[in-house]
Amino acid sequence: MIREPFNDGWRVSGRTSLFEQFMPAAATTEVTLPHDAMLAAGRSAEGSDGSHTGYHRPGAWRYDKDFEVPAEWAGKRVTFEFEGVYRDAMIYVNDVFAGQWANGYATFHVAADPYLRYGATNTIRVEAQAHKDSRWYSGGGIHRPVHLLIGDLLHVTPAGLRVTTPQIDDDLAVAAVATEVINEGTGTRTVDVLLQVRDGGGAVVAEDRVPLTVLAGERATVRQRAYLRRPALWSVDAPNLYTATVRLTDAGGQVDQASTTFGVRSVTVDPVHGLRINGETVKLRGACVHHDNGPLGAAAIARAEERRVQLLKDAGFNAIRSAHNPLSTAMLAACDRLGMLVMDETFDMWTVSKTDDDYARRFPQWWERDVDALVAKDFNHPSVIFYSIGNEILEIGTPHGARWGRLLAERIRAQDPTRLVTNALNGMLAIMDLIPALMAQAAPAENGGFNDLLDGMGALAALPEVGERIAESAAVLDVVGLNYGDSRYLADHETHPNRVMVGTETFPTQIDQYWKLVTEHGHVIGDFTWTGWDYLGESGIGRPTYPDDPVAFGAPYPWLTASTGDLDITGRRRPVSYYRETVYGLRRDPYLAVQRPEHREHPFRPKGWAWSDSVASWTWDVPAGTPVTVEVYADADEIELLLDGVTVAKAPVGVDKAFLAAAEVPYEPGTLEAVAYQDGTETGRCRLVTAGAPARLLVTPDRPGLSTDAQDLAHLDIRLVDEHGTVNPVSDRTVTVTLDGPATLQALGTARPSTEEPFQANSCTTYEGHALAVLRPTGADGRVTVTVRADGLPPATVTIEVTPRT
Predict the structure, then answer these.
(1) How far is CA 240 from CA 198, 199, 284, 313, in A?
(2) Engineering a disulfide at 619: which of 312, 382, 402, 691 sits with its beta carbon 3.0 to 4.6 angstroms away?
(3) What letter does residue 598 receive in the DSSP assignment?
(4) Per residue in 422-452, pLDDT tens?
(5) What angle do CA 549, 555, 557 make, to 5 degrees?
């Protein structure tokens, strides 16, 4: 079927009821999809769902769009494809109900032609809502793209082209292509089916042709095999892709066409060799990621998804776990192109609720359709190696919970037996009924309430009762996912030697311990940190806390982000990211970070999701001579710290924590340098330089040009720098961004974890000397001139060329 973008010209308002037409007109806003209505609705301490959603206001939204339907579409099949509407989407065509979908992250299709007026202007209306239904920031509205599909009554179904590679060796690979064709006409049709496979350079490397006869009202699957000589295999380091195209023709010419990319790769797992891709063992350096794109909110704009994957890979990750809902198609495509493995997750709950109006209320009626949608979306993506059927499901420790897990796993396997099935099990949840007694047994001084309970999840997971209760739920799986369950890695291997395990969610502060377990044991195939990328909502769970802070899971308004990512919401790497890279063995040079001196008298309290409050800076607004604690991350045995070339401290690495050295240094402006030594030999250096007063704005686009496609973006890094180009992180000031040309300012903001500044304004206050502006093309070509201003500094100007997409 012809697939056309259907993302322009939408209007959104905060009303859904037709009765409201008798009230004063609701304010509407012209938007281009994907769009996040919740982000635009703003935040408040009252009238919101609290820290879970970052104090964003819930709501109900209505999207409308007018579109022309040519007379020649009569007799065609016209379908709307929605990649994701949050949540409980109701679709109306010309004010007539046409379809619905409960899940906010599933791709679904709505037949339009029964309701169309041909040769006339038509309307489509989409209604959605979000209210007390998520444990994190959900966003709202049509947050993923929409497509219009137009085709012959005989056509390939929207997800009907599926490719597997059942046989692979160095000389030959078999691409088994199954194409589902439906005949919605009134007569029998016979068509010629031509399959062509192209390599990454566009050359046809295999083809096959067969006839197909389909009765009226019938679905038929045609199976063809393409033989690829000397195949280019897909892997993390070499993400080679092929394209399969199927054309249906009859005596009148082409009837329909469908294409998909795919990769040639094998995936196996066992407790001896672990996970093997194309026969080679791979240890998963994993990042859990929420669906939001920081300043863009939940809008899954393709370039933002691609940028996130690239930056995560640059930081040392080779795998992503979607938390806790299916990834967007755009992000999967980016993982395919860039070489990132994926664990795609279905649900955060099954039949037992976690919030007042969450998906548990819809799960019993919808789960089969949601699972089918997940498999249909993921089937041809070589990056996807796992389906995760759930996250911290409350009923997993019960027989009925295990039964549900079996139903989900078998539904997936019936459609896609080529991938691994896992479930992110949290052992603490399996024994929730025992926890009150366990807490009562703890001495009062040792009982720090809910937060300490969360930090102690690993110890609770080690209890024998956990192993007994999760045994059946674990038996359903190909790989047992464990959230904060590293204490079970070795114990369960003794009792279940055939069990393969993966850390589906772990504390970032303990990666040195986790990675040792991963590398030393074949049955432990990887680790997924919480989280790879900071996110909106669950505000403050990873913030450093101090003795005078209230002990609470969340943080008060105006806290916004979770503050627990290796990368912040703008894509900047935090110190923990460099520590992790060192632990992984991917970084040889040491890395310097300094704990915030203003908290020296009341140092932070280490928590599972909270790294130290360190910053990679030697620019501090404190008197000279103030003692500061310096952290150095290194794969070495000793660190020497030099201040302006003079040794001020030496420290061994790994005394209290592997790969980490700490020393107290009196602050003096200048150059602080760390030198790493192994057996007395220097292995690397890192330095920090004190910045002078901000002298100018440095604005750096992430790409020299944009296409006219509204799914493209340019990200502009804005920095306050001194005359030498060093970022000044202690002299933040307001920056204002203006544009001239065919683009809009989609977002402007920082990674400041607690703020009342919206991302939709054209001004913001820098955070640690940084800000991020995001530009989106309007559809026309030309030159965009971006000017950034700040008080007391000369304006900075950059130009970006917008050209038609080829």
Answers:
(1) 12, 8, 20, 17
(2) 691
(3) G
(4) 999 999 999 999 988 877 776 554 445 555 6
(5) 115
Of 3.20.20.80, 2.115.10.20, 3.40.50.2000, 3.40.30.10, the CATH number of 267-583 is 3.20.20.80
Domain 154-262 fold is Immunoglobulin-like (2.60.40)
The C-alpha angle with vertex 292 and arms to 284 and 45, in degrees rounded to 5, equals 130
- Whether the Cβ atoms of residue 476 and residue 405 lie closer than 8 Å to each other: yes
Q: 561-600 burial, b if ≥16 CB within 10 A, otherwise e?
A: bbbbbbbbbbbbbbbbbbbbbbbbeebebbbbbbbbbeee
How far is Cα 535 from Cα 568, in angstroms, rounded to an integer?
Answer: 8
Architecture per CATH, 696-803: Sandwich (2.60)
- SS3 letters across 347-373: CCCCCCCCCCCCHHHCHHHHHHHHHHH
Query: Whole-angstrom Cα distance, residue 504 to residue 283?
Result: 13
How far is residue 725's CA from residue 7's CA, in Å, rounded to a whole number?
A: 41
Please report, as a single letter, which amino acid is at residue 73: W
Is there a common fold for 2-151 and 591-689? no
Q: Name the class of domain 2-151.
A: mainly beta
* Residue in the block written with tokens 């399959």: 195
Residue 149 near residue 81 (C-beta atoms within 8 A): yes
pLDDT digits (tens, 9 = 90+) for 232-252: 999 999 999 999 999 999 999
pLDDT digit string (tens) for 205-225? 999 999 999 999 999 999 999
Contacts of 749 (CB under 8 A, 6+ apart): 294, 295, 569, 570, 757, 758, 759, 764, 771, 772
Taking residue 168's Cβ as centre, other Cβ atoms within 10 Å add up to: 18
**CA 198/CA 322 separation, integer angstroms:** 30
CA distance 718 to 352: 45
Cα separation of 296 and 301, whole Å? 9
Residue pair 563/542 in contact by the 8 Å Cβ criterion:
yes
Other C-beta atoms lying within 10 Å of the C-beta of residue 704: 10
| Residue in 483, 478, 491 with CA at minimum distance from that of residue 430 | 483
Q: What is the CA radius of gyration of the chain?
A: 27
Q: Give the amino acid at 130.
A: A
Residues contacting 616, CB < 8 A, separation 6+: 575, 578, 591, 592, 593, 594, 688
Distance of alpha carbon 193 from alpha carbon 94, whole angstroms: 36
Strand order across the 146-151 sheet = 2-5, 146-151, 77-82, 108-111
The CATH architecture annotation of domain 591-689 reads Sandwich (2.60)
Q: What is the pLDDT of residues 91-114, one digit of tens each?
A: 999 999 999 999 999 999 999 999
List the chain domain ranges.
2-151, 154-262, 267-583, 591-689, 696-803
Q: Which two tokens stand for residue 429?
A: 């949840």
β-pair type (384-391, 420-425): parallel
| 8-state DSSP, 329 | H
